[in-house]
Specification:
By secondary structure, the protein is α/β, with parallel strands linked by helices. The chain has an 8-stranded parallel β-barrel with strand order 1-2-3-4-5-6-7-8, surrounded by 6 helices. Bound molecules: the ligand Cc1ncc(COP(=O)(O)OP(=O)(O)O)c(N)n1, 4-methyl-5-hydroxyethylthiazole phosphate (TZP) and magnesium ion. It holds the Pfam family TMP-TENI.
Amino acid sequence: MADCRLYLCTPPALDPAVFADQLAQALDAGDVACIQLRLKDVDDDTVRRAVDVLRPISQSRGVAFILNDRPDLAAETGCDGVHVGQSDWPYAKARKAVGADAIVGVTCHDSRHLAMEAAEAGADYVAFGAFYPTTTKPSHYRPEPDLLQWWSEMMEVPCVAIGGITPENCAPLVKAGADFICVVTAVWNHPEGPGAGVKAFNAAIEAASGAT
Ligand SMILES: Cc1ncc(COP(=O)(O)OP(=O)(O)O)c(N)n1
Ligand SMILES: Cc1ncsc1CCOP(=O)(O)O
Ligand SMILES: [Mg+2]
């Protein structure tokens, strides 16, 4: 298995009953390390219902199920962890809510400083992005791949690359040392379906890992 693995984020709005089948297709197509449920602007019960449907599909396949933004709901609903951004719960409060064994990831944009702070506080991964233009979450932060190289040479804590990543443009990020490539659009909107998207990423990661 390549050192770099695929990390999926859900689309920001979904019908769990419909998305369940797409998720199973994606996870059955190849290697996926984890899936983040990222629903924006929905009420708590909508999140709970989505977790109830999607978490077992993920966990039964050995794929970690991470909730975006809400450490309290992550703990309540049996998720494997939570992802928090700089405007969400601070790391320490998130960790307290989910416990020592859960995964806590932190958005660090393009900032070495934020990443060092998160890693020193105990984050399980730091996320950098958006590396490429994206309409999923427009971002004025635009790190260069050398940030990943600097990070992976300096630090043990894994780093995630996110933002506009496709099978065609992921190679520089993989070669620079990204531990995870996090993707929304290029998998769920793949013209041949999410399974084909996962396969295309697995192949691109493998090719970039082997290339010098
Ligand atoms: C893996 C990963 N990286 C970054 C983000 C973005 O988090 P945040 O800045 O809190 O923005 P929202 O996703 O909450 O809109 C993420 N979710 N996952
Ligand atoms: C959540 C998030 N944070 C930074 S970019 C981004 C969206 C990534 O989605 P896509 O893979 O569709 O560009
Ligand atoms: Mg957030």
